[in-house]
Amino acid sequence: MRFEVLGSFRFLSDRGEAELGPNQRRLVFATLVLHMNKPVQIGSIAHVLWGDDVPESAAGNVQAHVSRIRSQLRRIPTTDVELRTMGRSYVLRGSPDQVDAHEFRRLAAEAAARNGDRAIERYDRALALWRGTSALADLTPERSRELLVRPLEELRLHVLEARNELMLSSGGHQELIPELTSLVGHHPGRTRTTAQLMLALHRSGRTVEALAIYRSARESIVSTHGLEPARGLAELHDRILRDDPALQLAVV
């Protein structure tokens, strides 16, 4: 049995992919999966579903969804996952290894404890678990989805940056440019990614483009926040302007 949240929400058993029901029930199930072996209060689930506009019927609705989820789990003869009630809370008991998000975190931690190619290999394995760039991509509303997965998606970006830094340090600047360009386009406020793209372009003999990336980032930061870019990014810009030879070996 496996639960997958790094993309659309999927529940897989030896019978194949299970039908998870309507969106609201899927949100309840996903909340319990992401908190595997930890009690989740009814009020916390209600907040995921309705935010601050919780209806009077919230507890009953949550209980009904939990009852359907529990029945679904019991219909799988080989299941070792159990949904228990603990007072005003519910806890999904099972092995964390059955959740792709747990595997992703484990591989990311293993990569961070390694160096060079061994670290890159672990980072790549972690990133390969993602089916797209959004977790719980099929669930709505966006407020509920973000409440559940924002830390996971932030960790994904951190893993990408850590992997890309290692690749830059081993001479992989040219092959990184397309990916870094896409990342900067989708996440223009991430200083580390912007710096990595500038360095990759400069090392590839595309210094004019590297400087243009800085100008674009600076304009965005000033217009959005009324601040100048972080010191490290500005210093990298100055070093590129000077054609500092140390940049050919520097790690952002």
Automatic annotation (TrEMBL):
Among the GO molecular function terms of this UniProt record, one is: DNA binding
| Keyword presence, Manganese | no
Entries under InterPro entries matching the protein: AfsR-DnrI-RedD_regulator, BTAD, Sig_transdc_resp-reg_C-effctor, TPR-like_helical_dom_sf, WH-like_DNA-bd_sf
Q: Which GO terms describe its biological process?
A: regulation of DNA-templated transcription
Name the SUPFAM superfamilies for this protein. C-terminal effector domain of the bipartite response regulators, TPR-like
Q: Which residues form the Bacterial transcriptional activator domain?
A: 99-241
Q: Name one Pfam family in it.
A: BTAD
- Which keywords does the record carry? Transcription, Transcription regulation
Q: Does the keyword Transcription apply?
A: yes
Q: Would you tell me the protein name for this molecule?
A: Bacterial transcriptional activator domain-containing protein
UniProt organism field: Longimycelium tulufanense
